[in-house]
Amino acid sequence: MLKFPGRIAAASFAFLLISLDCGAQAGTSAPVVAADPQIAAALKQVSADRIKANIEKLVSFGTRLTLSAQDDAAISSGRGIGAAREWIKSEFERYSKECGGCLEVKTDSFTEQPVDRIPKATQITNVYAVLKGIDESSAKRIVLVTGHYDSRNSDTLDVNGDAPGANDDGSGTAVSLECARVLSKLKFPGTIVFLTVAGEEQGLNGSHHFAKVAKEQGWDLEAVLNNDIVGGDKSPEQNHSVIRVFSEGVPVAASEQDIKRIRGLGGESDSGSREVARYIAEVGQTYDTGVKPMLIFRLDRYLRGGDHYSFNQEGFSAVRLTEYREDFHHQHQNVRTESGVEYGDVPKFVDYDYVADVARLNAATLASLAAAPAPPANVHLQAKNLENDSTLTWDASPGATEYEILWRETTSPEWEHAQNAGNTKQATLKLSKDNVIFAVRAVDTKGHRSLPVVPAPEH
Ligand SMILES: [Zn+2]
Question: What protein residues have CB closer than 5 angstroms to ion ligand 1?
Answer without folding.
Answer: 168-169, 228
